Amino acid sequence: MYQLPAISYGYDQLSKYISKDIMELHHSKHHQTYVDKLNAALDQAPALKERPLDSLLSDIDSLPVAVQTAIRNHGGGHYNHSLFWQWMSPNGGGEPTGELAAKLIEKYGSFQSFVDEFTTKSLGVFGSGWAWLQPDMEILTTPNQDTPIMLGKAAPLLGLDVWEHAYYLDYKNKRDDYINAWWHVVDWDFVAQRLEQA
Ligand code: MN
């Protein structure tokens, strides 16, 4: 059975940029629902419980039709959100250093150009979805809870949830204000760690 992972900082610790109310609702209600519905889907196809979640998500088309959509949506939701909490930190923000910074500058010309392009692509997601930075420094977007490994791509280095539930309470319809605020909490150390492991 999958369980809701704990967050390593308090719901109120990002509150300069993301309120305690959003963090609490997003983690304890939205993410919990993905976990519960993923578990319910796996109860319908118990053989799949033997396989790690990333193996299921990388191989969605081969899953039993009866549970495919539920695993895509709720398994994807659990996978994405489990990472999302780790991509933020009360000590986040600023700029990456080392290899990550060098690769971003090589691809985009400057860190700011990368931020601008990632922001533009995040704003361009129609409806609910995510924006991603991949280990090859490509920026991708996906709809709903789809995740890069469903597309045959590598696991992402960084991802941004642009569902309205991630920002509406604080920013209403102003997704751009949310994204601009979110850069202040990005945990670049965790992103760099994922690049090393990629
Ligand atoms: Mn979300």
Describe the structure.
There is one protein chain. By secondary structure, the chain is mostly helical. It has two domains: about 20-85, Helix Hairpins, CATH 1.10.287; about 100-195, minor pseudopilin epsh fold, CATH 3.55.40.20. About 50% of the residues lie in helices and about 5% in strands. It has eight helices and three strands; from the N terminus they run αααααβββααα. It has helices spanning about 20-45, 55, 65-85, 100-110, 110-125, 170, 175-180, 190-195; strands spanning about 130-135, 140-145, 160. A three-stranded antiparallel beta sheet has the order 2-1-3, with helices on both faces. Strand 1 and strand 2 (about 140-145) form a beta hairpin. Helix 1 runs antiparallel to helix 3 and helix 4 crosses helix 5 (about 110-125). The chain starts with 19 loop residues before the first helix and ends with a helix. The structure holds manganese (II) ion. Manganese (II) ion binds near residues 30, 161 and 165.
Q: Bound compounds, please?
A: manganese (II) ion
Radius of gyration: 17 Å
How many domains? The number is 2
Give, in spatial order, the strands making up the sheet with the most strands: 2-1-3
Major sheet attributes: 3 strands, antiparallel
How would you concisely characterize the structure shown here?
With 198 residues, the protein is mostly helical. It has eight helices and three strands.
